[in-house]
Every structure is written in C-alpha cells, then in structure tokens.
## 1
Amino acid sequence: MYIYTLINVIVAIIVIIALVFLAFRFYSWRQGDEQITMLTKRRTQFEVEDINFHQVTLVCDIPFVNKGRQNGTIMDLYPRHLMPQEQFDNVWIQSWTTDANAERHDGYWKAQIIEAHKGGIVRLRLIFNAKNGNIHKDLAGFPDMNIDIVYQVVGRSDWHISKNRIVLTAEELQHALR
Amino acid sequence: MAELQLIPVQTRILTHRDDIADAIVAYAGDIIGPEDIVCVAESVVAITQGHFTRPEDLKPTWQARLISRFIPPEGSMASIYGMQAAMELDGKWKVLGAFIIGAIAKVFRKSGVFYQLARQASLTDDVTGTMPPFDKHIVYGPKDPDKVAEHIVQRTGSYGAVVADVNDLKRAAVLGKSRGMDPKRIARILIDNPFGNDDQMTPIVIIKNFASVSKKA
C-alpha cells in the first residue's frame, strides 16, 4: 500500500516537472531569439575607393538585419576571402570590415547590440597589391572570388558563428576598374 | 572662493596589467589636492583587477538558461552568459533563490529585490558594456571596492576616494568609499555622468575642493 502511494507521488512529481519544462519551452519558443542575417543579395556593387600604380582598394556595403524577436549582439565580424594560389597568384589580397555607421580603420569589430527588426551596414574593403608592379596588368584574368562574412553572435541562447558568402565576380572587378 | 569642480581625467586603455592607484597617480597626480575626492569608474577598477571573463569560457547551467529568459532584453542578465557570469561568483542556487524571491516580491509590487539579493547580477556588465578591447568580455563588479578607495587615498593624499557606477540614464551609485565619505552625496554630485561615454576614455573624475566646500555648508 505504501509502495503504491510512493509510486503515485513519484509519478506526480515527474508529471509536474515535465509540465513545467514544457511550459518553459513554450515560453522560450514564444519569446524567440535573435536572427541576425547578412543580406548579401542586397549588397552594393564593388567600387574603386582608391587606386595607384601598385594597388587598388575596392569597397562594398552589405546590409544586415536582425529578423528575430530578441536583441542580438554581433561580438565579432570579419571577412575571409578565398583565393588559393593555385587559382590566381598575381596579387596580394587583404580584406577587412567595419561598421559603416561608425567606421574604424583598424579592422577591429566593436561588439554591438542589434535590436529586434533593426539592422545596419557592414563595409567591406578589399585591397589588391600587384606582385609584379602594375595592378591593372596583374589583375588581368582575375577569376571569381568567394568572400565569406563570418560573424559571432549571441542572443538569448548559446553564442554561435555564422557565415554568409558574397562573390566578387571577374566581370564586376573589371567593371569597377574601368 | 573655492567651488566644487568636476575634472574628468583622460587615460590610455587600462588593463589587468595596471594598478588603478598607480594609474591615478600617473594621470592625475599633479591635480589631486588634499581637499579633493578621487572618483574612479567601477568597470575600470574591475578590469585592472582582472575581474572579467569571456562568454566562450563559460558553460551556462540550466539555472542561467531558465532565469535569463525572464529578464528584459536590455539588461546584462538577459544573456545566458551574463547570468552565468553572475552565478560563477554568487552561486547558481543563491541566484536562483534570489530570482524566486524577487518574482514573489514583484507580485506584491516591490521591484529590484532580485538585484538586491544577487549582488553580482546588478554589477556585472555583459559584452558591449565596456570599451574595446573589453567589449567582448563580461566585466564583473570590482573586488573589495572599499579597500581600493582607501588605497587610492593613501597613494594620492586626497581627502577621499570612491569607486562609482554611473551612467547616462541619470543613475549613479557609489560601490566603494574611503572612510568618512557620504556615498549618497557623492552619487548626487556624479549624477550627470562626468565620466562621459567610453570613447572619451575618462575613467577618473576629480571632485575639486570638496572638503572646503563641505566645511562651509
């Protein structure tokens, strides 16, 4: 008889804990989280910002938005250009990003809170340095180049790293250099 | 005739390799007199004490995940890492208990109980709370702020010293003070945030002529 009562009590406790857990999960789901995304399709065309005989700097703006229902913090953000030497080896490439609304010149991403349904603009700069002297000549035949925008975000849940890709096409580069 | 005067002091970025009293002497030693009060920002004191951590170094517990969901989004404790950081110092069960008591108090329309009971929850700044390179860190409240204030008085020969938490939202609190200081009065003097924002890099404020003005009052 006592064992039967004890089992009932244990089952009742388990059911209560399960219900509380489910209620919390439902509350969390309703509350939502951040959803910060780079709007790569809405990026601007690369334009020449600075050019000399040896070097050219291209710039492009990439908007981003927090589509989620909670604030999110972009703790870090940086570009990763992908041009292996096997594919093209005539230029040195550097890439760096900054917040277009609070430009910095050090490549450091100052952590910032993005409120729900708001966003901003990442400014991406690419610097090409000629290996043989003449940047126009050295960029001839430059192929499409993938660039990943990598960013670390934290919101209501665990921090995570996301990346979105843009492509600097051969045609876009040649058009910018014209 | 002497008047109260607030003088913000600019410094370089101070880190855990600095001693706050040495920094005050280096940057403001020549303007601090025996009638002055030295005020220093609490986050900078904490940073010089190495009292900070990174989200990547924390493993959030279920208690942190649970409680943080009930904190308004603008608070440092709304993040599971900010909450976990507070729990690392205060203890997860103590913070959970404070949360439950705070929730009950809210039913009776008494707010702020959670932050009164879980002290680190009110003192900890989540990421973005301080300037680079500490914008990616969670900065705790300062350790032993009264001792820090006393140490500053001994090093500078000032009339008094305080460790203060001040922001642009007209909130000022004195977390640590040297002997004889009236924290409420100092907080009122600092209410307009003479420390400025992070970019101004003025974590030290000197209240000139405090002693002589106090004697006249």
## 2
Amino acid sequence: MTRLRRDPRAERAAMQVDAGGGETRRPRYDRSVRRTPGGRSRRDPRAERAGRRVAGGPRLRFDLCRAVRIEGPMPSEAGHRPAPEADAPTILVLEDPAFLVAVVPDMPGGRLSVHDRQLLGAARALAGRDGGVALLALGPCEGAGPAGADRLVRLDDAEDYDPAARAARIAAALASLGARHVLFPESLEGGDLARRVAVRMGEPLFSDAEVVAASGLIRPARGRSVEQRAAPGLLATVAADAVAEYAGRPREARALAREAASVATRPAAILSARRIPADPATVPLALAEFVVSVGNGISDLDSFRQLVAALRATPGASRVLCDAGVMPRQSQVGASGTVLAATCYVALGISGAPQHLQGVAGCEHVVAVNTDLHAAMIERAGLAIVQDAQAVMPALLRLLAREAAGQGTVS
Amino acid sequence: MRVAVLLSGGRHPVSGAAVVPRLEAQAIRLAAGLGPSIGPSIGLHAGPDASALAEALGQGLGHVEHIDLPATADPVPALAARLAASRPDLVLAGRRGHGGPESGLVPYALAEALDLPLIPDVVAVAFGEEAGTLRLDQSLGRGALRRVVVRLPVMVTIHPDAPPPRPFAYGQARRGRIEAIPLASVAANEAGPALEERPYRRRPKIVKGAPAGGSAAERLKAATGEAGSAAKGRLLVEPDPEDAAREILAYLRRIGVLAPPRPLDFGGR
C-alpha cells in the first residue's frame, strides 16, 4: 500500500491566512484547518469496539472475529454472511473432443450423489485435456456441467423395475456413443448395472477401482493383501470415496442428440416390484439419511418428537441429553456415539462440541438452530439460525400442519 | 423345488485358512429358511480346493458337487453346464466370489448363459402367493427395501444385511457328502486386461470438499469444516420464528430430504 507523499510546503500554504498588511508583516497560519484527507484515516478504537458489540442479551458480548471495521452498531436483522465476491466463472466449452469418457451415475432421486460426482472427477482424470466426459442420465439431470460433464445423453427411464431392459438400453446407448472408457459407481445399483452391461457387451470389467488415472487403474484384491493395476479398458467401476470430485471451471454439459434405439427384451420374469422405504424411526442412526438432533438448549422433548415424526427424520441427541437419560444412548451423535453418514443433519439447541462435530463431519448439509451466534455448530452449518430452538420447533410444526391441510405455499 | 448355492474358494482374512465366505453361508441360511418342503439344497463349487466344502455342509447343505478345475480356468462354462443339467429353480450366490478375480461377474455370466433373471442384493426370500413364484426383498441401502415377486427359475445374489448364517453343525457336516463331478473339458480363462500385482498400499483418504490439486491450507480448511457449505452458508440472526421455520423447510426441500408439500397427482387416486 502506498500512501500519498506529503507536501509540507503546500500544506502550510493552504493554512496561511491573509491577515492584511504589507510584506513586512509576518505570515499567519490557521492551525485549526483540517488537513486534506490523504492516505489512511485515523482509527477510532472506541467506535470499533462499540461496532463489534453484539446487540441484545443481558451480558456484554463482542464479536471479535470481525476483521472489517464497522462504523455503526451491528445489524441485528437477518442478513447474508459476508461471502467472498467471486465473479461468475466462465463455462469451459470443448468443441471437438478427441475421445469420450462415458459416465453412468446412479442419481438417486434425480440428483447427482457424492459418489456420482466423484465418478465424474475420475472421468475427468481419464479424459485429460483433450477428451470429453459424457454423462448418461436416466431421467432429468441437474448440475452435470459444474460436476464436470462436457456432454449429456438423456435416456428415458422406465417406471417399473426391469434391470435387464435397463442394462440393454444403456449398452445400446454406449454402443452408439462410441466412448473409449465407461465408468460406473461401485454402489448397489451401479455395480449391478455395470456387470449386466459387461456381460451383455462381452467386455471385461475392472471392478472397484480405487485409483483412476490415464496411466492405469488400481484395485485391491484378495482381501486387500495385493493391489492389481491395469491400463484403463472399456468398462470399470469406481469405489466410493476413492477419487476426488471435479473442482475446475464448470463444463458445458451439452445435450447430445440420440436416436431412440429399440431394444428387444424377453418377457420379464419380474411380476411386481414395490419399494418399501426405510422406517426413519427404527433405522439405525449410522444408516439414516436425515437426522434431526436435539441438544441441551431444548427442554420440550414432546414437540421435538412430534417434529421428528412430521419431518420423517431419525432422532438423534447430543451427549448431554443421553447422559441425563432423557434420550436413549443409541441416539447419541458424536465421537463416543454414532458417526453419521447422513445427507442432512439438523441440530436444534446444540452448540457443537468438537466431539459432536466429529460425528457430523460426513454430513453434506447441516442446519443449526441455536441462541449463541458464536457456537461452533453455527459456524459449521449451511443454514444457521440464531434463534431459540424452543420457539422455532412449534413454528415448524404449525407450518407443516398448515401444509398438510393444503393451505401451504411453496416458498 | 431344487435350490443350488454357488460356493467359492474363500480364505479367512487373517489366517488364510479355507472358509465358506459369510455371504454364501447366509445364502445357505436363506435357502433353509424356505422350509422343509424344498428338501436339502445343493452346493456347487468349481475350483482346485475342496477343503472348505465340509464346512459348507455343516452350515446346512445336503450335498455338495465339486468340479475339480485349475485355479486359472474360467469356472463359468463348467458351472453353466452343470446347472443346465440339474436345472435348479433357485440359484443363490454371494455378491462376489472369492479366490478368483473377484469382480462379481460370475452370477451375471451364469444368468446370461442359462437365460435366468437375476435379482441382486437380496436380504429375504419367501414363497409368493401364486404357485411357482418367489417373493424377494432386495436391499436398496440405508434400510430401504424393494419387494420383488418373480417367476421361477431365478438367480439371486445375497446382500450382507441378510440374516446371519446358522451355527456350524458337526453331525450335519459328517452326514453330508461331497460328490466329484467329472469335467468334459477345461476352458482357459479369457485373456482379460494384463494385470500387474503389487503389495497393497493404503491411499490417503480424500478430504471431502477439498478441491483436487489444492494447497495444504485448502485441505485443512475443508477438513475443519471452514470451507464447503459453511463458507457459503446462510446466517440468520434473531429472525422471527415463523420466518426461520419457512427458511428451514425451503432449505430441506432444496436439498431433497423433505418431500414437497403437495405430492404430484399422477391421475390415480
């Protein structure tokens, strides 16, 4: 930082007062004239301290983590957390890819899961600079471009469960696409699909790859005593949490035109298929997808139980409540309880001890409701609400009841 | 109804002794759970080593057929020929056989060769209401199930969430018999990709949310939760509880864990 250079003579000339008289009179200066503002202005530590003061509350509290100087008192109204201003990244367009790496994600519920995004990261590593990544989506797909897909092939998904016909459609689409490599996730559904496609196409499958690079794929074998390495072939499945997601500029995900291939399938032996969703009240906490957890900031456990039932979530608790005996021990979240693998975690009245945050480390989305602005859980959360959870819970219940009655509005 | 269970050459992960893999023991239990009407199920193993087959008998199999095959040979043609001759109604297998390349392709290749439907990751088997059908509960992960009714014959692979295997019964292992099946010809394993083997090396865990090729400071930020969702998170200070509730529900719906308020009407009632 460069400050403007002071010019003492000019400053003196600006302060000089013409008091009248001839040249014999000595020069007079008005020292009360403020200097021209140049460079940094003077700090006012008292005003800064007052600006850091957190409004409300009986105790005097200061928000010392604010680095910027505040002129007035801190706004107590709702507002966004100051985010670093990033200009929108330009979309990377690959006009003529030298080859294609196809990816067939699971997309549970029409969204790319974490494993799917890791798969796209692996495909990006295989494609390198010249190759393109094509995503074969069954049904609509959002967010393919930011996850690293250059092309998007959309296939129509059948309503009923017929994995053989699905594999036949994927195999036909892959044959018409002419990809050099095809990657599947090594998940329940993706692994099944990959093996059906491999058998149908008569191609070898490199399963459960833990390292994906253009120079070779590596998988563990014989109870992880050895690892096997091979040059990337046509078909491979990629293990979960083995490859990092794509983190570069968003790609284009241009929709590719596709001729509808009619696939002859034999009459299905599957007479009926019905999905039985997991009962959130009884599913083990480690397997639960959506956990609502209660901490020491809440004493009204009845409305908490109603809320958990209304949200169709699995109940969790912090160590304090489990020690006190108001929640069962198997619902404890944290280092000495259960480490979660949930998609979403809602913490009501939990400040977020480090041991508790360890249990939440794997959760993708966290919502925190807490009275303490400086709680670690507020820092961790994707949606942080500084409010009494005892007041928010009945409001949530009322809103859900209104929506269930059909008067709700989609916000 | 005839039931066949495919057995692979499992090795104990610590001692290296020949064992029946847990999933196949669970498959034997599922077959036994169908009741006494189906008779004892048959085990089928193609491989050089028969030492673990007596243990499979003790888990509840009536008799085991053993096709003596070199370790490098492809077991699929031999198994397919044997299954085509015995025509079982239900073939059970683990998700991934041990001892070979362990790619999990054998059940799929057999289903293709025998023209059977294959239902993967099954945790429960029961007879259907109609004769000649089977009701299978398939695991979808995280406790969710899919109940599938199929017409026999069918091939099924087992998920680890299936009920645990029955305890080993010594008398049953003594009573059962192991039958050696003569082999017409040995098909060599197809030349797959050339595999280079090395001792296994643990890879560093990837840190979720850390960008690929990022600096150590970025990885530390991601590990401590300062990056990712927290960095671009939304903070509401002292909002009205009603506003807070609306924000929470909107957030839960945006990330897809909560169903939209009014489910779409698909025409039917």
